[in-house]
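Example 3.2
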Amino acid sequence: MWRRNQNTVSFQAGKSLGPVAHTVLVALMLAVLGLIYLTQITKTSTYGYEINELETKQEELLTKKQDLEVENAKLQALERVQQSDVAKALDTPSTVEYTN
């Protein structure tokens, strides 16, 4: 007859692992975790290199932009001088003499 709060089916494991098998399984799991860790670190360092390259390129482009802004300002200044009323009122010399 069955009693209350008692299992009606008993389970018995067919085979159990020995201490060597447990050690091998633990070592295998640690190796897998180590490989996962290494792949994550490699991805992180790869992203770090890409970020450094992009930052270098950004600095180069900013320098080029500043150079172009300076050149643009020079060209606009020359154009303004040539278009000014004072420059238009000037006469070109008919002859030029150089002294030694």
